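User
Take a look at the entry that follows and flag anything odd:
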Amino acid sequence: MVKLSLTSLPEKRVNILRSISQKRYELLLFAASIYATALAAQEILHERSIPDLARAGSESSEILLKHWKQGNVVVLVRHVERCDHSDAPCLNDANGITERAVEVAQRLGSDFKSMGLEETDIYSSSLTRAVQTSAYMFNADVPRLDWLFDCKEGFRNQIAQQKRAHRNLILVTHSECMNRLEESLELPSYRTPKYGASLFLKLADPQMEPEMVGILNASDWSDLLSELDGRRFPTHSFRQ
């Protein structure tokens, strides 16, 4: 069997092969560039439509605080780390959260307490990982709602019906439900919220459309709270 190499081929054919290889390489680079540009554009669009409250500045923090004190805020909180998607030890039930997620949930609850919970209604999905998250967040057996995991087309309306006037509403739920709400508001929802992320919306009137305030990851609360002056909370102080 005769093995051929580029040096054994006519020069013209060698040049053609090299030209084809070069064009393929350039095409791959072009495709990679287009893909990277599309991802960057998605990130920018998501950031503009759903502000990151840890980085949006004091104005966004002030807006959130104003609505919170008026009892006009709805918060969707994703459960903390689920055990069946992790190599970390389970708390107990494999359908629940991991051992290391307990501290995250407790810290998240402490952060919400810093905002003040006197005028707040709290509910949880009935799935184990959400039940455990809410229990460690608020040190209580939080009332459960099936529609917080079985979020269908009427999800946004169910939230509006659950919201009481002049009372904030915290819903411990799942990433799919958070994405569904974003889609119903015609916002980009390609990005899965992180474990423990909180999606804040303004809803003063159940008959009106919810207004997006922003999203906050569990690890970023200190950045938000540092933007707020403790004097604005006459009966609460921030977690040190």
In short: The radius of gyration is 25 Å. The first strand starts at residue 73 and ends at 78.
